[in-house]
Design goal:
Number of strands: 28
Largest sheet: 5 strands, antiparallel
Radius of gyration: 20 Å
Structural class: mainly beta
Shape: globular
Order of helices and strands: HEEEEEEEEEEEEEEEEEEEEEEEEEEEE
Distance between the termini: 47 Å
Strand content: 35-45%
């Protein structure tokens, strides 16, 4: 037993040192799959939360995206290991009607329940929001609640709790064009109101799936996926009640999901595919998967490359900072598995991003992307 523990420790130290030696891998502590085998072939759209009893992750899995058998699965970190994925929600409507589920989002109420938001519907333009709650860190769940008044809830990325007590859910719609809005609850999901949609700006930016950064004194910022070959941003100076029009940032976007979080020290972390699509295309490969940091949400520094294989589909990331100060990333790995990466932000080595181009690093050559699984 003792020899097995020693061997495991040596292997962990070895993998850690290898990660540190590779270009763009400084600061990585853990790099693992949440599961090795599952009873579904395809998986996507992971989310993660820290609960009083440990980490919880959720994602949707099934035959393939949009298939009626797609369900919401949950894994929990227990004694340092992830539990096998367990189905906690499906889209069964009746004995002869079933719809796919989509985009789970976890949120831990301080001192309260773990909330699981997700969507049901045949496609994003026709889905609706659902909510389940857990009182025991994701072991058991309440009956599903349909969100009122056609609310969607947080569409992909986590809500944030503002100093005024409002839980602010970043959301968007895809029916009649792409539009960003917010859904706000002062009582953790009992009542809701909507803010937006946001002005699309002078460039008429189609954007969805925002994430929220906080800058203090009621100042908020969003970063969002777009069809404009760049990440979109907008600002609020009154705790999210009003917003500036959407505008492009100087960071590229391949029309794929991103996530961001403001750390305890006030710095901002962004995880995304730093990919400028070829030519004039709006969509590009979903590799590599990058991490950047910023002090002001405007000027960014390159920090990490989580994945850079030429095989595409490292996508739809989620990031949180846990109570110990570490960063936890989860994301889709080739639509086959969910990856979990833990990073010590104090160990990151940063390089300035100039003109939207990922900086060069001695000894690093980015692989040429191949065609990967279908991307939506």
């Amino acid at each position: 037993m003792r020899n097995s523990v020693l061997l495991a420790g040596l292997l962990l130290l070895s993998s850690y040192s290898i990660a540190q030696d590779k270009p763009w891998r400084k600061g990585i502590i853990t790099d693992e799959f949440i599961y090795d085998k599952a009873n579904f072939p395809s998986v996507h759209s992971a989310t993660i939360a820290e609960t009083p009893t440990g980490l919880v992750s959720a994602f949707f899995g099934g035959t393939r995206e949009r298939n009626p058998d797609v369900e919401i699965y949950v894994s929990r970190m227990v004694n340092g290991k992830w539990t096998a994925p367990v189905s906690v929600a499906d889209g069964v409507q009746s004995a002869d009607k079933r719809l796919p589920t989509w985009n789970p989002v976890l949120y831990q109420i301080p001192g309260g329940d773990l909330m699981l938001f997700y969507k049901i519907g045949p496609k994003p333009s026709e889905w609706w929001g659902m909510l389940k709650r857990s009182k025991d860190g994701g072991k058991t769940w309440s009956a599903a609640e349909k969100l009122p008044n056609n609310q969607i809830g947080p569409v992909k990325n986590k809500p944030i709790l503002l100093s005024n007590g409002n839980l602010f859910a970043p959301s968007s719609t895809e029916g009649n064009g792409w539009h960003v809005h917010f859904e706000v609850t002062p009582d953790f999901g009992k009542t809701w109101r909507k803010i937006g949609p946001l002005d699309q700006g002078k460039d008429t930016i189609d954007a969805i799936q925002p994430s929220i950064l906080t800058h203090g004194d009621g100042k908020l910022q969003i970063l969002a996926r777009s069809r404009s070959r760049a990440l979109a941003t907008a600002w609020s100076y009154d705790n999210g009640e009003t917003w500036t029009p959407l505008e492009k940032t100087n960071l590229p976007n391949n029309n794929s999901g991103t996530d961001a979080v403001t750390m305890k020290n006030g710095k901002h972390v962004l995880v995304y595919n730093h990919v400028l699509p070829p030519g004039n295309l709006a969509k590009g490969p979903r590799t590599p998967l990058n991490v950047s940091l910023s002090k002001d949400g405007i000027h960014w520094k390159a920090a990490l490359i989580l994945e850079d294989s030429p095989i595409s589909q490292y996508s739809y990331p989620s990031v949180i900072q846990t109570s110990d100060g570490l960063l936890h990333f989860v994301y889709t790995w080739r639509r086959e598995k969910i990856k979990h990466v833990v990073v010590d932000p104090s160990k990151l080595k940063l390089k300035k991003i100039k003109n939207g181009e990922w900086p060069k690093l001695k000894g690093y050559v980015a692989p040429e992307p191949e065609n990967g699984p279908a991307e939506e």
